[in-house]
Sequence to fold (262 residues):
Amino acid sequence: MDLVKTLIQEQTDKICKTYKIEPNEVQELLSQKIKGNGELVDIINSSENLKQVYRTKIFKQFIKKAKKEMYYSLRTYQKESEDLVDSHISSRERSEHIDKLFDQIDGHIKMAEVILDIGGGLFPASFPFEKYPNLKQFIWVDKDKKAYESLKKENYSKLVLHNYNIGENLWEEYLPEGLSEFDFVFMLKLIPVVNRQEKELLEVISKVPFKQALITGSKEAMVKKIDIEKRENAVIRGFIDTFGFNIVKKIDLPNEFGYIIE
Ligand SMILES: C[S@@+](CC[C@H](N)C(=O)[O-])C[C@H]1O[C@@H](n2cnc3c(N)ncnc32)[C@H](O)[C@@H]1O
Fold:
């Protein structure tokens, strides 16, 4: 095997051990980048083995930049995809286990007429509307413009979309007339994000009027293959304790965990 091929293979194996990325994506990116890097190609061609290549400044800079690019592309929630569920990292990661999620929460949402989804992303695209005939409105609030546009195009009949920041409007403004609380609220993978980015909004979220809500967190980091359940659980339990909610049920999926609260 020539040195370029071996280099790509070795670096792909290494990157895939750490990052949540498919080997073919890494291979493609590295081979494109190597082709565009004349200095590195010269070094590889004039080296006897990869050890020599790995020691050079040019290679070190090259691999650092490539990893940075991969890191940032993995950090974005959305990517182009024909399938809506697949285009948002949160719904994509959950899609394999979506039936397990609904098996665990079914009894808590089957009588719900009004559901609120805070920071919903593209979750409505995987919500099985046909399974819940009692549902009248599924109300979505998220600041993400792209997710809003994508969901709007789908025209789900019960879905009501509000493209706002949390706290921009009173929760009561999202409630259908005559109602004082939501039957069920989804806060999927939201509390740890808000805790990291806009802590002051946790109190705003705690004031949503609801009968029951589901709060979840991730078990694995977004970009790297690192277990973050403990860290996310501490944030979520902190939220539940600080604002005095009661845990009704624990939800467990292979890559997500959560609590139904009252
Ligand atoms: C990790 S994603 C989870 C998406 C979805 N709940 C799911 O689990 O599939 C977090 C979502 O919260 C939204 N979000 C974060 N901070 C927000 C804020 N201050 N106001 C409105 N939406 C927010 C983001 O736009 C993003 O769609």
About this structure: The radius of gyration is 23 Å. The mean pLDDT is 95. The chain has two domains: 3-75, 86-261.
